[in-house]
Automatic annotation (TrEMBL), chains A, B:
Record flagged with keyword Lipoprotein: no
Entry GO MF terms: RNA binding; RNA methyltransferase activity
The protein's name: TrmH family RNA methyltransferase
Family: Belongs to the class IV-like SAM-binding methyltransferase superfamily. RNA methyltransferase TrmH family.
Annotated GO CC locations: cytoplasm
Organism per entry: Sphingobium subterraneum
One Pfam family recorded for the sequence: MRM3-like_sub_bind
InterPro entries cross-referenced by the UniProt entry: Alpha/beta_knot_MTases, MRM3-like_sub_bind, Ribosomal_eL30-like_sf, rRNA_Methyltransferase, SpoU_MeTrfase, SpoU_subst-bd, tRNA_m1G_MTases_N
Domain RNA 2-O ribose methyltransferase substrate binding: 32-108
Example of a GO biological process term: RNA processing
Keywords assigned by UniProt, alphabetized: Methyltransferase, Transferase
Length: 268, 268
Protein backbone atom coordinates (compact mmCIF):
# COMPACT_ATOMS: atom_id res chain seq x y z
CA UNK A 1 0.00 0.00 0.00
CA UNK A 2 1.45 3.36 -0.97
CA UNK A 3 0.89 6.35 1.25
CA UNK A 4 2.54 9.72 1.66
CA UNK A 5 4.30 11.14 4.70
CA UNK A 6 5.22 14.79 4.72
CA UNK A 7 5.63 15.59 8.43
CA UNK A 8 9.03 15.55 10.11
CA UNK A 9 7.51 14.60 13.44
CA UNK A 10 5.60 11.63 12.04
CA UNK A 11 6.17 8.77 14.50
CA UNK A 12 7.09 6.32 11.74
CA UNK A 13 9.82 8.68 10.49
CA UNK A 14 11.18 8.90 14.02
CA UNK A 15 11.03 5.14 14.44
CA UNK A 16 12.81 4.45 11.16
CA UNK A 17 15.38 7.10 11.90
CA UNK A 18 16.09 5.42 15.24
CA UNK A 19 17.27 2.33 13.30
CA UNK A 20 20.54 4.14 12.72
CA UNK A 21 21.29 3.18 16.33
CA UNK A 22 22.17 -0.36 17.26
CA UNK A 23 19.97 -0.36 20.36
CA UNK A 24 16.83 0.23 18.31
CA UNK A 25 17.89 -2.18 15.57
CA UNK A 26 18.15 -4.91 18.21
CA UNK A 27 14.82 -3.94 19.78
CA UNK A 28 12.97 -3.93 16.50
CA UNK A 29 14.86 -6.64 14.66
CA UNK A 30 15.03 -4.27 11.71
CA UNK A 31 17.76 -2.42 9.83
CA UNK A 32 18.13 0.11 7.01
CA UNK A 33 19.52 -0.29 3.53
CA UNK A 34 19.80 2.63 1.15
CA UNK A 35 19.97 3.13 -2.56
CA UNK A 36 18.59 1.42 -5.63
CA UNK A 37 21.67 -0.70 -6.22
CA UNK A 38 21.64 -2.33 -2.80
CA UNK A 39 17.87 -2.70 -2.71
CA UNK A 40 17.99 -4.37 -6.10
CA UNK A 41 20.70 -6.78 -4.93
CA UNK A 42 18.44 -7.63 -2.00
CA UNK A 43 15.48 -8.21 -4.27
CA UNK A 44 17.53 -10.45 -6.55
CA UNK A 45 18.51 -12.41 -3.47
CA UNK A 46 14.82 -12.83 -2.68
CA UNK A 47 14.68 -10.22 0.07
CA UNK A 48 12.06 -7.48 0.11
CA UNK A 49 11.97 -4.65 2.65
CA UNK A 50 9.24 -4.55 5.26
CA UNK A 51 8.82 -0.90 4.39
CA UNK A 52 10.14 1.19 1.55
CA UNK A 53 10.59 4.97 1.66
CA UNK A 54 11.17 6.88 -1.51
CA UNK A 55 11.18 10.42 -2.78
CA UNK A 56 9.01 11.11 -5.81
CA UNK A 57 12.06 11.14 -8.06
CA UNK A 58 13.24 7.86 -6.53
CA UNK A 59 10.51 5.95 -8.33
CA UNK A 60 11.52 6.69 -11.89
CA UNK A 61 14.11 4.00 -12.59
CA UNK A 62 12.69 0.78 -14.06
CA UNK A 63 14.25 -1.25 -11.24
CA UNK A 64 12.65 1.04 -8.65
CA UNK A 65 9.31 0.74 -10.42
CA UNK A 66 9.62 -3.04 -10.38
CA UNK A 67 10.53 -3.07 -6.69
CA UNK A 68 7.61 -0.82 -5.76
CA UNK A 69 5.21 -2.89 -7.85
CA UNK A 70 6.32 -6.07 -6.11
CA UNK A 71 6.02 -4.42 -2.68
CA UNK A 72 2.48 -3.37 -3.49
CA UNK A 73 1.56 -6.76 -4.92
CA UNK A 74 2.64 -8.31 -1.64
CA UNK A 75 0.75 -5.73 0.42
CA UNK A 76 3.88 -4.16 1.90
CA UNK A 77 4.23 -0.58 3.04
CA UNK A 78 5.51 1.89 0.43
CA UNK A 79 5.92 5.44 1.69
CA UNK A 80 6.38 8.42 -0.58
CA UNK A 81 8.12 11.25 1.17
CA UNK A 82 10.34 14.28 0.69
CA UNK A 83 14.10 14.45 0.17
CA UNK A 84 14.29 16.30 3.50
CA UNK A 85 12.68 13.45 5.38
CA UNK A 86 14.93 10.94 3.61
CA UNK A 87 17.84 13.10 4.76
CA UNK A 88 16.54 12.89 8.29
CA UNK A 89 16.18 9.12 8.10
CA UNK A 90 19.56 8.49 6.52
CA UNK A 91 21.45 11.24 8.35
CA UNK A 92 23.01 12.43 5.09
CA UNK A 93 22.78 15.72 3.25
CA UNK A 94 22.37 13.98 -0.07
CA UNK A 95 20.28 10.96 0.79
CA UNK A 96 19.64 8.08 -1.54
CA UNK A 97 16.19 8.37 -3.09
CA UNK A 98 15.22 4.91 -1.78
CA UNK A 99 15.50 3.58 1.76
CA UNK A 100 14.37 0.09 2.70
CA UNK A 101 13.64 -1.23 6.17
CA UNK A 102 14.58 -4.92 6.37
CA UNK A 103 14.10 -7.62 8.95
CA UNK A 104 17.46 -8.70 10.29
CA UNK A 105 18.71 -12.10 9.39
CA UNK A 106 21.19 -13.60 11.77
CA UNK A 107 21.23 -17.34 11.43
CA UNK A 108 22.28 -19.67 14.24
CA UNK A 109 25.39 -21.81 13.70
CA UNK A 110 23.22 -24.93 13.60
CA UNK A 111 21.41 -23.61 10.56
CA UNK A 112 24.64 -23.45 8.54
CA UNK A 113 25.16 -26.12 5.90
CA UNK A 114 28.95 -26.10 6.11
CA UNK A 115 29.47 -28.33 3.10
CA UNK A 116 27.31 -26.03 0.98
CA UNK A 117 30.39 -23.90 0.32
CA UNK A 118 34.11 -24.55 0.24
CA UNK A 119 34.91 -21.33 2.08
CA UNK A 120 33.54 -19.54 5.13
CA UNK A 121 34.93 -16.34 6.57
CA UNK A 122 35.18 -16.05 10.33
CA UNK A 123 35.94 -12.61 11.80
CA UNK A 124 36.90 -12.05 15.40
CA UNK A 125 36.25 -8.75 17.21
CA UNK A 126 36.17 -6.80 13.97
CA UNK A 127 35.57 -3.15 14.81
CA UNK A 128 35.23 -1.19 11.62
CA UNK A 129 31.86 -1.34 9.84
CA UNK A 130 33.51 -0.51 6.52
CA UNK A 131 35.82 -3.49 6.90
CA UNK A 132 32.91 -5.74 7.84
CA UNK A 133 30.87 -4.68 4.83
CA UNK A 134 33.86 -4.97 2.53
CA UNK A 135 34.51 -8.51 3.80
CA UNK A 136 30.89 -9.42 3.06
CA UNK A 137 31.33 -8.02 -0.45
CA UNK A 138 34.49 -10.08 -0.92
CA UNK A 139 32.71 -13.12 0.52
CA UNK A 140 30.08 -12.83 -2.17
CA UNK A 141 32.75 -12.41 -4.86
CA UNK A 142 34.62 -15.57 -3.87
CA UNK A 143 31.46 -17.62 -3.42
CA UNK A 144 31.84 -17.92 0.35
CA UNK A 145 28.91 -19.41 2.22
CA UNK A 146 28.77 -16.65 4.78
CA UNK A 147 30.40 -14.63 7.50
CA UNK A 148 30.66 -15.91 11.05
CA UNK A 149 31.20 -13.06 13.51
CA UNK A 150 32.92 -14.18 16.67
CA UNK A 151 33.07 -12.24 19.93
CA UNK A 152 32.33 -8.52 19.93
CA UNK A 153 32.23 -7.45 16.32
CA UNK A 154 30.69 -4.26 15.03
CA UNK A 155 27.02 -4.64 14.08
CA UNK A 156 26.74 -6.08 10.55
CA UNK A 157 23.39 -4.31 10.21
CA UNK A 158 24.79 -0.82 10.80
CA UNK A 159 24.17 1.60 7.96
CA UNK A 160 27.91 1.82 7.21
CA UNK A 161 28.38 -1.95 7.05
CA UNK A 162 25.32 -2.42 4.86
CA UNK A 163 26.57 0.30 2.52
CA UNK A 164 30.10 -1.12 2.29
CA UNK A 165 28.69 -4.59 1.60
CA UNK A 166 27.05 -3.22 -1.57
CA UNK A 167 24.22 -5.68 -1.08
CA UNK A 168 26.35 -8.73 -0.26
CA UNK A 169 24.74 -8.62 3.18
CA UNK A 170 21.73 -10.18 1.49
CA UNK A 171 23.59 -13.00 -0.24
CA UNK A 172 25.86 -14.08 2.61
CA UNK A 173 24.66 -16.00 5.66
CA UNK A 174 25.55 -14.02 8.80
CA UNK A 175 26.15 -15.73 12.13
CA UNK A 176 26.97 -13.98 15.41
CA UNK A 177 28.33 -16.16 18.21
CA UNK A 178 30.98 -16.57 20.87
CA UNK A 179 34.33 -18.23 20.17
CA UNK A 180 33.62 -21.26 22.36
CA UNK A 181 30.32 -21.94 20.63
CA UNK A 182 31.97 -21.57 17.23
CA UNK A 183 34.78 -23.93 18.11
CA UNK A 184 32.45 -26.60 19.48
CA UNK A 185 30.32 -26.39 16.35
CA UNK A 186 33.37 -26.36 14.04
CA UNK A 187 34.82 -29.52 15.58
CA UNK A 188 31.51 -31.33 15.29
CA UNK A 189 32.00 -31.73 11.52
CA UNK A 190 34.48 -31.30 8.68
CA UNK A 191 36.37 -28.04 8.32
CA UNK A 192 39.91 -26.66 8.27
CA UNK A 193 40.49 -23.59 10.43
CA UNK A 194 43.09 -21.29 8.84
CA UNK A 195 44.47 -18.15 10.45
CA UNK A 196 46.93 -15.54 9.28
CA UNK A 197 49.66 -14.74 11.73
CA UNK A 198 52.90 -12.84 12.11
CA UNK A 199 54.17 -15.71 14.24
CA UNK A 200 54.63 -18.27 11.49
CA UNK A 201 57.01 -18.67 8.56
CA UNK A 202 54.58 -20.65 6.45
CA UNK A 203 53.87 -18.76 3.24
CA UNK A 204 50.17 -18.48 2.44
CA UNK A 205 50.73 -20.00 -0.99
CA UNK A 206 52.49 -23.12 0.32
CA UNK A 207 49.66 -25.25 1.75
CA UNK A 208 46.80 -26.79 -0.20
CA UNK A 209 43.65 -25.64 1.56
CA UNK A 210 40.99 -28.25 2.29
CA UNK A 211 37.28 -27.56 1.81
CA UNK A 212 35.38 -26.41 3.73
CA UNK A 213 38.01 -23.87 4.75
CA UNK A 214 37.18 -21.56 7.63
CA UNK A 215 39.30 -18.45 7.15
CA UNK A 216 39.82 -16.76 10.51
CA UNK A 217 40.46 -13.00 10.53
CA UNK A 218 41.45 -11.11 13.66
CA UNK A 219 40.74 -7.69 15.08
CA UNK A 220 42.15 -4.73 13.13
CA UNK A 221 44.54 -3.55 15.83
CA UNK A 222 45.42 -6.72 17.72
CA UNK A 223 45.13 -9.52 15.21
CA UNK A 224 44.16 -12.93 16.56
CA UNK A 225 44.66 -13.76 20.24
CA UNK A 226 47.36 -16.40 20.56
CA UNK A 227 44.88 -18.80 22.19
CA UNK A 228 42.79 -18.56 19.02
CA UNK A 229 45.82 -19.08 16.81
CA UNK A 230 46.57 -22.21 18.82
CA UNK A 231 43.22 -23.69 17.75
CA UNK A 232 43.95 -23.20 14.05
CA UNK A 233 44.72 -26.23 11.90
CA UNK A 234 46.99 -24.05 9.84
CA UNK A 235 48.70 -20.70 10.36
CA UNK A 236 50.06 -18.86 7.36
CA UNK A 237 51.52 -15.49 6.59
CA UNK A 238 51.01 -13.17 3.70
CA UNK A 239 54.39 -11.81 2.57
CA UNK A 240 55.05 -8.22 3.57
CA UNK A 241 57.81 -6.71 1.45
CA UNK A 242 57.78 -3.19 2.85
CA UNK A 243 58.10 -1.48 6.18
CA UNK A 244 54.66 -2.28 7.55
CA UNK A 245 53.93 -5.56 9.28
CA UNK A 246 50.26 -5.92 8.43
CA UNK A 247 47.57 -5.29 5.86
CA UNK A 248 44.15 -3.79 6.34
CA UNK A 249 41.88 -6.56 7.70
CA UNK A 250 39.53 -6.57 4.71
CA UNK A 251 42.49 -6.61 2.31
CA UNK A 252 44.18 -9.51 4.11
CA UNK A 253 40.90 -11.43 4.03
CA UNK A 254 40.59 -10.91 0.29
CA UNK A 255 44.19 -11.89 -0.49
CA UNK A 256 43.72 -15.10 1.50
CA UNK A 257 40.26 -15.82 0.09
CA UNK A 258 41.44 -15.47 -3.52
CA UNK A 259 44.39 -17.77 -2.87
CA UNK A 260 42.00 -20.39 -1.49
CA UNK A 261 39.60 -20.23 -4.41
CA UNK A 262 42.40 -19.91 -6.98
CA UNK A 263 43.66 -23.31 -5.85
CA UNK A 264 40.29 -24.81 -6.71
CA UNK A 265 38.82 -22.97 -9.65
CA UNK A 266 39.07 -23.75 -13.34
CA UNK A 267 40.64 -20.80 -15.16
CA UNK A 268 38.64 -18.98 -17.80
CA UNK B 1 62.35 23.53 21.42
CA UNK B 2 59.62 22.41 23.78
CA UNK B 3 56.96 24.84 24.90
CA UNK B 4 53.52 24.58 26.39
CA UNK B 5 50.22 25.75 24.95
CA UNK B 6 47.15 25.75 27.15
CA UNK B 7 44.83 28.22 25.43
CA UNK B 8 42.11 27.07 23.03
CA UNK B 9 42.28 30.32 21.13
CA UNK B 10 46.02 30.15 20.59
CA UNK B 11 46.60 31.05 16.93
CA UNK B 12 48.87 28.05 16.37
CA UNK B 13 46.14 25.68 17.62
CA UNK B 14 43.71 27.29 15.20
CA UNK B 15 46.19 27.09 12.37
CA UNK B 16 46.95 23.43 12.99
CA UNK B 17 43.30 22.61 13.40
CA UNK B 18 42.63 24.22 10.02
CA UNK B 19 44.84 21.56 8.41
CA UNK B 20 41.90 19.19 8.65
CA UNK B 21 40.60 21.09 5.63
CA UNK B 22 42.11 20.57 2.21
CA UNK B 23 42.13 24.28 1.38
CA UNK B 24 44.44 25.07 4.28
CA UNK B 25 46.60 22.03 3.67
CA UNK B 26 47.21 23.27 0.14
CA UNK B 27 47.88 26.83 1.31
CA UNK B 28 50.36 25.77 3.96
CA UNK B 29 51.86 22.72 2.27
CA UNK B 30 51.36 20.89 5.55
CA UNK B 31 49.25 17.99 6.79
CA UNK B 32 48.48 16.13 10.02
CA UNK B 33 49.38 12.63 11.12
CA UNK B 34 48.23 11.22 14.43
CA UNK B 35 49.35 8.54 16.82
CA UNK B 36 52.64 7.03 17.90
CA UNK B 37 52.47 4.16 15.43
CA UNK B 38 52.16 6.35 12.36
CA UNK B 39 54.64 8.95 13.62
CA UNK B 40 57.13 6.17 14.29
CA UNK B 41 56.66 4.76 10.78
CA UNK B 42 57.36 8.25 9.48
CA UNK B 43 60.49 8.58 11.57
CA UNK B 44 61.75 5.20 10.41
CA UNK B 45 61.21 6.39 6.86
CA UNK B 46 63.37 9.42 7.67
CA UNK B 47 60.51 11.88 8.03
CA UNK B 48 60.21 14.14 11.05
CA UNK B 49 57.26 16.47 11.68
CA UNK B 50 57.73 20.21 11.41
CA UNK B 51 55.84 20.48 14.69
CA UNK B 52 54.84 17.90 17.23
CA UNK B 53 51.94 18.26 19.66
CA UNK B 54 51.63 15.93 22.57
CA UNK B 55 49.74 15.58 25.82
CA UNK B 56 51.87 15.04 28.92
CA UNK B 57 50.97 11.35 28.92
CA UNK B 58 51.84 11.10 25.23
CA UNK B 59 55.53 11.38 26.01
CA UNK B 60 55.93 8.28 28.15
CA UNK B 61 56.48 5.57 25.53
CA UNK B 62 60.16 4.98 24.64
CA UNK B 63 59.40 5.59 20.95
CA UNK B 64 57.73 8.89 21.81
CA UNK B 65 60.68 9.88 23.98
CA UNK B 66 63.05 9.09 21.13
CA UNK B 67 60.96 11.07 18.65
CA UNK B 68 60.80 14.10 20.95
CA UNK B 69 64.52 13.93 21.65
CA UNK B 70 65.28 13.88 17.94
CA UNK B 71 62.91 16.79 17.32
CA UNK B 72 64.66 18.80 19.99
CA UNK B 73 68.11 17.87 18.76
CA UNK B 74 67.15 19.22 15.34
CA UNK B 75 65.66 22.40 16.82
CA UNK B 76 62.08 21.55 15.80
CA UNK B 77 58.95 22.71 17.59
CA UNK B 78 57.60 20.39 20.28
CA UNK B 79 54.40 21.57 21.92
CA UNK B 80 53.04 20.14 25.13
CA UNK B 81 49.33 20.64 25.43
CA UNK B 82 46.12 19.26 26.92
CA UNK B 83 43.98 16.35 25.77
CA UNK B 84 41.21 18.89 25.13
CA UNK B 85 43.33 20.85 22.71
CA UNK B 86 44.45 17.65 20.99
CA UNK B 87 40.74 16.82 20.65
CA UNK B 88 40.19 20.19 19.07
CA UNK B 89 43.06 19.67 16.64
CA UNK B 90 42.11 16.15 15.67
CA UNK B 91 38.34 16.59 15.81
CA UNK B 92 37.97 13.42 17.83
CA UNK B 93 36.66 12.82 21.34
CA UNK B 94 39.47 10.44 22.14
CA UNK B 95 42.41 11.99 20.38
CA UNK B 96 45.73 10.31 19.90
CA UNK B 97 48.27 11.61 22.40
CA UNK B 98 50.64 12.66 19.61
CA UNK B 99 49.91 14.75 16.55
CA UNK B 100 52.56 15.64 14.00
CA UNK B 101 52.45 18.40 11.41
CA UNK B 102 54.31 17.29 8.29
CA UNK B 103 55.36 19.01 5.12
CA UNK B 104 53.52 17.49 2.19
CA UNK B 105 55.48 15.46 -0.25
CA UNK B 106 54.05 15.19 -3.71
CA UNK B 107 56.71 14.32 -6.18
CA UNK B 108 56.51 15.22 -9.85
CA UNK B 109 56.34 12.37 -12.39
CA UNK B 110 59.80 13.27 -13.63
CA UNK B 111 61.26 12.55 -10.21
CA UNK B 112 60.06 8.93 -10.33
CA UNK B 113 62.68 6.26 -10.95
CA UNK B 114 60.33 3.83 -12.63
CA UNK B 115 62.79 0.96 -12.74
CA UNK B 116 63.39 1.31 -9.01
CA UNK B 117 60.36 -0.92 -8.40
CA UNK B 118 58.62 -3.65 -10.38
CA UNK B 119 55.18 -2.35 -9.45
CA UNK B 120 53.49 1.04 -9.35
CA UNK B 121 49.88 1.64 -8.46
CA UNK B 122 47.95 4.19 -10.49
CA UNK B 123 44.54 5.28 -9.19
CA UNK B 124 42.07 7.28 -11.23
CA UNK B 125 39.44 9.54 -9.62
CA UNK B 126 39.52 7.61 -6.38
CA UNK B 127 37.03 9.23 -4.01
CA UNK B 128 37.23 7.50 -0.66
CA UNK B 129 40.09 8.52 1.65
CA UNK B 130 39.91 5.15 3.43
CA UNK B 131 40.42 3.36 0.11
CA UNK B 132 43.29 5.66 -0.80
CA UNK B 133 45.05 5.09 2.52
CA UNK B 134 44.43 1.35 2.35
CA UNK B 135 45.92 1.24 -1.16
CA UNK B 136 49.03 3.04 0.13
CA UNK B 137 49.29 0.48 2.92
CA UNK B 138 48.98 -2.36 0.41
CA UNK B 139 51.53 -0.64 -1.82
CA UNK B 140 54.03 -0.68 1.01
CA UNK B 141 53.26 -4.36 1.71
CA UNK B 142 53.90 -5.44 -1.88
CA UNK B 143 56.99 -3.28 -2.27
CA UNK B 144 55.41 -0.92 -4.78
CA UNK B 145 57.38 2.17 -5.68
CA UNK B 146 54.51 4.53 -5.10
CA UNK B 147 51.03 5.68 -5.89
CA UNK B 148 50.26 7.82 -8.91
CA UNK B 149 46.97 9.66 -8.49
CA UNK B 150 45.39 10.56 -11.79
CA UNK B 151 42.60 13.09 -12.32
CA UNK B 152 40.50 14.21 -9.36
CA UNK B 153 41.33 11.88 -6.53
CA UNK B 154 40.61 12.53 -2.87
CA UNK B 155 43.45 14.32 -1.08
CA UNK B 156 46.08 11.76 0.01
CA UNK B 157 47.02 14.11 2.86
CA UNK B 158 43.55 14.13 4.44
CA UNK B 159 43.45 12.92 8.02
CA UNK B 160 41.39 9.87 7.03
CA UNK B 161 43.74 8.82 4.23
CA UNK B 162 46.82 9.28 6.42
CA UNK B 163 45.19 7.19 9.15
CA UNK B 164 44.14 4.39 6.79
CA UNK B 165 47.64 4.30 5.31
CA UNK B 166 49.01 3.40 8.76
CA UNK B 167 52.19 5.26 7.92
CA UNK B 168 52.64 3.90 4.39
CA UNK B 169 52.10 7.47 3.21
CA UNK B 170 55.67 8.08 4.31
CA UNK B 171 57.20 5.10 2.50
CA UNK B 172 55.40 5.41 -0.82
CA UNK B 173 56.15 8.08 -3.40
CA UNK B 174 52.97 10.02 -4.15
CA UNK B 175 52.38 11.70 -7.49
CA UNK B 176 49.32 13.76 -8.44
CA UNK B 177 48.84 14.45 -12.13
CA UNK B 178 46.43 14.48 -15.06
CA UNK B 179 45.86 11.42 -17.23
CA UNK B 180 47.43 12.97 -20.32
CA UNK B 181 50.59 13.88 -18.45
CA UNK B 182 50.77 10.41 -16.95
CA UNK B 183 50.34 8.72 -20.30
CA UNK B 184 52.98 10.85 -21.99
CA UNK B 185 55.42 10.11 -19.19
CA UNK B 186 54.54 6.40 -19.14
CA UNK B 187 55.19 5.98 -22.86
CA UNK B 188 58.54 7.74 -22.60
CA UNK B 189 60.07 4.68 -20.97
CA UNK B 190 59.51 1.01 -20.09
CA UNK B 191 56.29 -0.02 -18.38
CA UNK B 192 53.25 -2.24 -18.86
CA UNK B 193 49.90 -0.60 -18.11
CA UNK B 194 47.45 -3.13 -16.67
CA UNK B 195 43.80 -2.42 -15.93
CA UNK B 196 41.03 -4.52 -14.46
CA UNK B 197 37.83 -4.50 -16.41
CA UNK B 198 34.43 -6.15 -16.62
CA UNK B 199 34.77 -5.97 -20.40
CA UNK B 200 37.38 -8.66 -20.85
CA UNK B 201 37.46 -12.43 -20.47
CA UNK B 202 41.14 -12.59 -19.67
CA UNK B 203 41.60 -14.09 -16.21
CA UNK B 204 43.97 -12.07 -14.01
CA UNK B 205 46.13 -15.14 -13.39
CA UNK B 206 46.64 -15.92 -17.09
CA UNK B 207 49.20 -13.33 -18.23
CA UNK B 208 52.78 -12.99 -17.02
CA UNK B 209 53.13 -9.40 -15.88
CA UNK B 210 56.21 -7.50 -17.05
CA UNK B 211 58.12 -5.17 -14.74
CA UNK B 212 57.68 -2.32 -14.20
CA UNK B 213 53.95 -2.99 -14.08
CA UNK B 214 51.67 0.01 -13.72
CA UNK B 215 48.47 -1.27 -12.12
CA UNK B 216 45.60 1.03 -13.03
CA UNK B 217 42.64 1.22 -10.64
CA UNK B 218 39.44 3.06 -11.48
CA UNK B 219 36.93 5.13 -9.55
CA UNK B 220 34.87 3.24 -6.94
CA UNK B 221 31.52 3.73 -8.63
CA UNK B 222 32.38 3.98 -12.32
CA UNK B 223 35.50 1.91 -12.77
CA UNK B 224 37.86 2.98 -15.55
CA UNK B 225 36.59 5.12 -18.43
CA UNK B 226 36.65 3.09 -21.62
CA UNK B 227 39.10 5.54 -23.21
CA UNK B 228 41.50 4.76 -20.37
CA UNK B 229 40.97 1.03 -20.76
CA UNK B 230 41.84 1.43 -24.43
CA UNK B 231 45.28 2.73 -23.46
CA UNK B 232 46.06 -0.33 -21.33
CA UNK B 233 48.56 -2.87 -22.60
CA UNK B 234 46.58 -5.56 -20.84
CA UNK B 235 43.05 -5.80 -19.46
CA UNK B 236 42.24 -8.57 -17.03
CA UNK B 237 39.38 -9.56 -14.81
CA UNK B 238 39.30 -10.89 -11.30
CA UNK B 239 36.84 -13.79 -11.13
CA UNK B 240 33.56 -12.95 -9.41
CA UNK B 241 31.77 -16.09 -8.30
CA UNK B 242 28.78 -14.50 -6.55
CA UNK B 243 26.03 -12.06 -7.37
CA UNK B 244 28.06 -8.87 -7.26
CA UNK B 245 30.01 -7.68 -10.27
CA UNK B 246 32.80 -5.84 -8.53
CA UNK B 247 35.06 -5.72 -5.49
CA UNK B 248 35.88 -2.78 -3.27
CA UNK B 249 38.56 -0.72 -5.06
CA UNK B 250 41.23 -1.25 -2.40
CA UNK B 251 40.48 -4.98 -2.30
CA UNK B 252 40.70 -5.33 -6.09
CA UNK B 253 44.00 -3.45 -6.03
CA UNK B 254 45.40 -5.81 -3.40
CA UNK B 255 44.25 -8.98 -5.18
CA UNK B 256 45.91 -7.78 -8.39
CA UNK B 257 49.05 -6.54 -6.65
CA UNK B 258 49.62 -9.85 -4.85
CA UNK B 259 49.16 -11.79 -8.09
CA UNK B 260 51.79 -9.59 -9.73
CA UNK B 261 54.35 -10.00 -6.95
CA UNK B 262 53.53 -13.69 -6.44
CA UNK B 263 54.64 -14.30 -10.02
CA UNK B 264 58.03 -12.83 -9.19
CA UNK B 265 58.90 -13.61 -5.62
CA UNK B 266 60.84 -16.51 -4.19
CA UNK B 267 58.63 -18.43 -1.71
CA UNK B 268 59.68 -18.63 1.92
Amino acid sequence: MTREITGFSNPLVKRVRSLREKKYRKQEGLFLAEGLRILTEAREAGRLPEMLFHAHEGASHPLAIALIAQMEAEGRDVIVTSADILSKISGKDNPQALVGVYRDQDVPLDAIDRTGSGLWIVAQSLRDPGNLGTILRTGDAVGAGGLILVDDCVDPFSVEAVRASMGALFTQAIVQCRWDAFLTWLRSGPGQLVGTSLRTDQDYQAPRYAAPTFLLVGNEAQGLPSAYEAECDLLVKIPMLGKADSLNAAVATAVMAYEIINQRRVRA
